[in-house]
Design a protein that fits this description.
Length: about 160
């Protein structure tokens, strides 16, 4: 009984020491350079779009031929999302006058339209290879991927 108790105590002490070292290392790393709000937003957005794409791909249950067509679509969605975030950060900059802010918004909307067209072009071969049930799921799940949800659905339905 005593060796087991001593072994458990020794393991607990070692684990506590490792945790304390890990917390101290993490705290020291955080003190050196905190990520900016823009960096955090970028990371969160990347994680969110990655999760949405993964969920969409899983929900579609693609076959091997369709898997090959997924890559260009996924890249177009990620590129569009990154461009949208950068444009939003530019639009929300503190040093813009009201007119500059409106111009930035107009630029963002024009860029958003161009990115939506790229997403649709990348989606066409994949969409055409899908079965009827997959097409319905693609439209439904694809709406969450782009801010212009209605435009995306309308473009995909036009392909039917």
């Amino acid at each position: 009984m005593k060796p087991t108790l001593l072994g458990t105590l020794a393991a607990a002490a070692a684990a506590a020491a490792l945790c304390a070292f890990g917390f101290a290392t993490t705290a020291a790393a955080q003190d050196d350079k905190q990520p900016t709000h823009a960096e955090l937003v970028q990371r969160w957005a990347e994680a969110a779009i990655e999760a949405q794409l993964k969920g969409m791909k899983t929900g579609l249950r693609l076959n091997a031929d369709q898997e090959e067509l997924w890559g260009p679509f996924e890249s177009a969605v990620k590129d569009g999302e990154n461009a949208r975030l950068l444009a939003l950060q530019n639009e929300q900059s503190d040093n813009l006058s009201p007119m500059d802010r409106l111009t930035a918004k107009a630029d963002r909307l024009a860029e958003s339209r161009a990115n939506l067209e790229k997403i649709v072009e990348a989606a066409k071969p994949l969409y055409e290879s899908l079965g009827d049930e997959q097409k319905h799921k693609f439209i439904t799940l694809g709406r969450v991927l782009v801010p212009e949800r209605g435009s995306f659905a309308k473009e995909m339905r036009r392909l039917r």
